[in-house]
Design brief:
The chain has two domains: about 70 residues; about 45 residues. Helix content is about 80%, strand content about 0%. The protein contains five helices and no strands. Helix 1 packs antiparallel against helix 3 and helix 4 packs antiparallel against helix 5. The longest helix has 26 residues. The protein is globular and about 55 Å long.
Length: about 110
């Protein structure tokens, strides 16, 4: 397997572990835990999980975007991003917005050839 393939899978595994920990950690900690109180909504650390996921996603996506040449190659990314933003605003559901964005990206990739 090439180095780029290993980098991709390392990023996917890292995102999976971070996502798992942000979801499972509250259930693994006792209600009286100091860390539990710091991670609770309203604290300054509440955005830590989403921020980590956004950072990892940016590290994976930005190099691909930098390698693109021309509007025809950028259009699927831009369309998917725009569709995700509009769906998130309209639907108010992040999961549904991601599904809409991926669908639009797929359609634009298929149309691009």
């Amino acid at each position: 397997m090439s180095g780029a393939g290993l980098d991709f899978w390392a990023a996917v595994i890292a995102m999976a572990v971070i996502t798992y920990l942000t979801r499972a950690l509250p259930f693994l900690l006792s209600a009286r835990s100091r860390l539990q109180r710091r991670l609770a909504e309203g604290s300054s650390l509440a955005a830590l999980g989403p921020a980590l996921l956004a950072g990892i996603a940016a590290a994976v996506i930005v190099p691909d975007l930098m390698a693109l040449r021309g509007a025809a190659e950028v259009a699927p990314y831009a369309g998917g991003l725009l569709a995700t933003a509009l769906a998130a605003r309209r639907l108010g559901n992040a999961g549904a917005a991601v599904i809409v964005g991926v669908a639009v990206y797929g359609v634009l990739m298929a149309a691009a050839g």
